[in-house]
Design goal:
Strand order of the largest sheet: 2-3-1-9-8-11
EC number: 6.3.5.4
Family: Belongs to the asparagine synthetase family.
CATH superfamily of the largest domain: HUPs
Strand content: 15-25%
InterPro entries: Asn_synth_AEB (IPR006426), Asn_synthase (IPR001962), ASN_synthetase/amidase (IPR051786), AsnB_N (IPR033738), GATase_2_dom (IPR017932), Ntn_hydrolases_N (IPR029055), Rossmann-like_a/b/a_fold (IPR014729)
Distance between the termini: 36 Å
Number of strands: 19
Keywords: Amino-acid biosynthesis, Asparagine biosynthesis, ATP-binding, Glutamine amidotransferase, Nucleotide-binding
Protein name: asparagine synthase (glutamine-hydrolyzing)
Length: 612
């Protein structure tokens, strides 16, 4: 995948410090990929092209890059772009210029020169870009509506640093690597606050925002937010409209100069995408559509159903493959791969920031790496559960009524959010429940409202907003970083803003009209899905249930906590640690151990000062 970085400084031109700018660009180069740069006056841009990860190559529009436009020999503006436009062809037709090719960077820049910052309202896709306007001596930073493409920045006294990933910004010597109390709270809170980037001073441009920088100041504004308006349609019209939107979105996202495939879990979301894509390809007279799933050695033998994972994926995957006649391959992972310390380090380097997702990130890293050996672009079903109400907490009265984020563990504060494993005095001082409450109140204040909306619809609107803006970003970050490391482009049909704007305003009674989770989505695609998938309950991304993995994890955690010099150890409750590493300890401490190992590795390998 492409990546961007840049440095604008009105008092200290970056062109005079080539070693620093080289380091910022090099931080994003993965697997031997190439890099482009551009500099003029106070501005410097760098763009990274994907490296040779093997398999087919996605080039052209999706590659991102740098593009400049001049008029009569006079420079007008330059853009550095990462991501993909899904309406690039339509924009090029509307703009009518003699484009050099189907290049998204050039398309965005031409749109900016025609419509100014208002161009953002016309874009459909996943993207982050920066424009240096030579005429105005002004920088514009833009991030897509849902924040699928990342963009970080760090303010300087007379300018700004920015990059697709924190590592590009960290490469500048003027950026301190320090985590304060709020940064640590953000790590352990299981909430992603828009704009917060854990490290003090580092910021993430929030989804749907743009930032303008001139010598005399800067401004930031939200150009898109989850909207609120009266839903105009009855149930049959709503079902039909959702289907029409999905058909159009999938067709658009299949456009590429290489074959596009899909991830398939046998769940409603991935099956919907896979079947619609297969039908579109068949109607175009193309070869059978390719799908990929993930499995683990011995998964069926070790599987134990839970409220998170109700059924194994494999039987439902097979049903979809037969029904849609896709060419399918299961990527089978071994627990031994997941236990490899080298893999943990690779995942952390890809993430740049701690997430606490443990083997969920590691298995996704391996899956994307394997798919990339075969394909360059893949469709995936992220954000459908947030939008259509698929998670269990949408249907749990206690979670719906809770005065907090609905996905947080409903346990006493001293047991949840890592409370039991941290030193009691430290955890009391940290006050994670108070931090979560503060962030929850901030989020509620943002929710758009409708006058006279029934209480149930108002509350479900709040929950949908919380999921789309505070939970989904954690999933999107994991997807982005793991796919970026593999050089794989992942497209997300359920993140299309047109679908979100429509579905988010559908009354809850319509979304759940038959009492089943994601009723509306099921109804929209019931004619194209096999019976088993239509009736399958939500089952989360699988994780290995091999007892050997848990045993190896306990051994690694025991070794870590036996070293008092490690930065995370001084924060822990020794009694809790002893219980966790015992051979007969319950498996529910697995995520906590994974998270602490990752956090300690991040603090040491990134040379982070923990200021708590």
């Amino acid at each position: 995948m492409s990546g961007i970085t840049g440095w604008v400084d009105f008092d200290r031109h970056p062109t005079g410090e080539p070693t620093v700018t080289d380091a910022m660009i090099a931080a994003l180069v993965d697997g031997g990929g190439g890099a482009d740069r551009w500099a003029a006056g106070p501005a410097l841009f760098g763009a990274v092209r994907p490296g040779p990860h093997g398999g087919p190559t996605a080039s052209g529009a999706a590659g991102g890059g740098i593009h400049s436009v001049s008029e009569a020999g006079t420079p007008l503006a330059t853009v550095v772009f990462a991501g993909t436009l899904h309406n690039g062809a339509e924009l090029r037709a509307e703009l009518g210029h003699g484009f050099t090719g189907p290049d998204d960077a050039e398309t965005v820049l031409r749109a900016y020169l025609r419509w100014g910052e208002g161009c953002v309202d016309r874009l459909n896709g996943m993207y982050a870009f920066a424009v240096w306007d030579v005429r105005e001596q002004e920088l514009l930073l833009v991030r897509d509506r849902m924040g699928v493409e990342p963009l970080y920045y760090f303010d300087l006294p007379s300018g700004v640093l920015f990059g697709s990933l924190p590592k590009a910004v960290f490469a500048h010597p003027r950026v301190p690597r320090r985590v304060d109390a709020d940064g640590f709270r953000e790590i352990v809170s299981v909430v992603k606050t828009p704009g917060h980037a854990i490290v003090a001073g580092l910021r993430e441009l929030p989804p749907g925002h743009l930032l303008r920088l001139r010598r005399d100041g800067r401004s930031q504004r939200c150009y898109w937010r989850v909207p609120a308006h009266q839903h105009p349609d009855d149930l049959p019209t709503t079902i039909r409209t959702v289907r029409e939107l999905l058909d159009d979105i999938v067709e658009r996202q299949l456009r590429a100069d290489t074959e596009v495939c899909s991830l398939l879990s046998g769940g409603l979301d991935s099956s919907t995408i896979s079947v619609l894509a297969a039908r579109t390809r068949a109607a175009q007279g193309r070869a059978a559509f390719r799908t990929y799933s993930v499995d683990f050695v011995g998964y069926a033998e070790h599987f134990q159903a839970s409220h998170m994972r109700t059924t194994p994926d494999a039987p439902f995957v097979a049903e979809v493959v037969r029904h849609a006649r896709t060419t399918h391959e299961a990527i089978v992972l071994d627990s031994a791969e997941l236990m490899d310390p080298g893999l943990r380090g690779a995942v952390l380097r890809a993430m740049d920031l701690p997430t606490g997702m443990g083997d969920l990130s590691a298995s996704l890293y391996l899956l994307f790496g394997a798919v990339r050996q075969r394909q360059a672009v893949v469709l995936s079903g992220e954000s459908a559960d947030e939008l259509f109400g698929g998670y269990s907490w949408y249907h749990d009265p206690a979670a719906v009524a809770a005065d907090t984020f609905p996905w947080l563990p409903r346990t006493p504060p001293e047991q949840g959010s890592g409370g039991g494993v941290f030193d009691p005095a430290f955890f009391a001082w940290l006050d994670v429940p108070g931090y979560q409450k503060r962030r929850y109140r901030e989020a509620l204040d943002e929710v758009p409202t409708l006058p006279g909306e029934p209480d149930q619809d108002r509350r479900m609107r709040e929950l949908t907003y919380l999921n789309l803006t505070r939970f989904s970003p954690m999933m999107l970050d994991r997807k982005d970083r793991m796919s970026r490391a593999a050089g794989l482009e992942v497209r997300l049909p359920f993140c299309d803003h047109r679908l979100i704007e429509y579905v988010v305003n559908v009354p809850w009674a319509m979304k759940s009209f038959d009492g089943f989770e994601k009723s509306l989505l099921r109804a929209a695609v019931e004619d194209v899905l096999p019976p088993g998938v239509r009736q399958r309950r939500k089952s989360h991304f699988p994780r290995t249930q091999d007892p050997a993995y848990l045993a190896a994890l306990r051994a690694e955690f025991a070794a870590l906590t036996a070293r008092p010099e490690e930065p995370v150890v001084r924060l822990l409750n020794a009694d809790t640690v002893r219980r966790m590493v015992a051979a007969d300890a319950p498996a529910d401490s697995r995520a906590t151990m994974e998270g602490l190992i990752e956090l300690n590795h991040w603090l040491t390998s990134y040379d982070i000062t923990l200021d708590v």
